[in-house]
Amino acid sequence: AKDLLAMRIGRITSKHFVTGNGTTQPKGILTAATLGKAGATGSATSFTYDDLVDLQHSVDPVYRGGPGVCFLMHDTTMAAARKIKDLNGRPIFVPGYEQGSPEGAPDRLLGKPVIIDQGIPTMAANAKSIAFGDCSRYKIREVMDLTLFRMADSGFLLNGQIGFVAFNRQGGNLIDVGGAVKYFQNSAS
Fold first, then answer.
1. Is residue 6 within 8 Å of residue 168, measured between CB atoms?
2. Which of 90, 154, 177, 186 has the most CB atoms at less than 10 Å from its CB?
3. 161 neighbors 99 (Cβ within 8 angstroms)
4. What is the number of alpha carbons within 13 Å of residue 58 lying toward its C-beta?
5. What ranges make up the beta strands (E) of the chain?
6. Dihedral angle, C-alpha 171, 181, 106, 98, nearest 10 °
7. Would you say the C-alpha torsion 41, 108, 31, 17 has a positive or negative sign?
8. How far is CA 113 from CA 93, 95, 121, 187, in A?
C-alpha cells in the first residue's frame, strides 16, 4: 500500500511541478517558461524536426550548454519524435544512438538528453507539449515533510478497510529572467 501511495503522490506532484498554476499549486515549469516556438497551422497534434531545432535555438546560448539542459516531453511525444524520418526514410532519432547505446545513458535528441515526464501535456490544440532549456533553473521548495494519517475508525473497519490521508506542502518556480527554458506549443488547428 505504501508503494502505491508513494507513486500516487509522486505523479500528482510531478504534474504540479510541470503545469501547476502558481497559486494553489507550485508554479509549473511550463507555466513559468515562455514560448520558444509555435507550431504552424495544421500541427495541433504534430511537430517537425525544424520545430525542434527552432525551439532549441530560441533559448539563449548561455543556457544551452550546462549539465541541466534537456528536452522535456510526454512519452507519446517521444514516440512521435521517433517516427520523424529524413528524406531517405531513416529515423532522425534512434534511442541510444547518439550515446553509442551505453547502458543507463539518457536518450539524446539534437545532442541533448530527453527526459520523459508524463505530467507534460500530450500533443493537442494549443498544448505546450515540449520544453527545452536549462531545467536546473527550476527550483523546488519543500515546505514540510509528508504527513500521513492512518484511519482505522468504524466507518472504514465495517467495510474491511483502513483509510490513509497524506498531506504534503511544496513550492516550485523557474528562477530565471533570461529565458532559460522555453516551450513548443502546438497550433490551434
1. no
2. 186
3. no
4. 23
5. 34-38, 69-73, 108-109, 112-116, 128-134, 138-151, 163-174, 181-185
6. 180
7. positive
8. 12, 11, 19, 25
Closest CA to 52 of 75, 31, 77, 28: 77
- The pLDDT tens digits for 153-189 are 878 888 888 888 888 888 999 998 778 999 999 999 9
CB 17 within 8 A of CB 28: yes
Q: pLDDT (tens digit, 9 = 90+) per residue, 51-107?
A: 999 999 999 999 998 899 999 999 999 999 999 998 899 888 777 665 555 555 668
Q: Is the dihedral of CA 149, 146, 174, 113 positive or negative?
A: negative
Instruction: Determine which helix (DSSP H) or strand (DSSP E) holds 155, and give its type and residue range.
Output: helix 154-157
177, amino acid identity: V
Task: Provide the pLDDT for residue 185.
Answer: 98
Please compute, for residue 181, the number of CA atoms within 13 A of its CA located in the half-sphere on the CB side: 26
Contact 13, 166 (CB under 8 A): no
Q: Determine phi and psi for 21, rounding to 5 degrees.
A: -85, -15
pTM for the full predicted model:
0.85
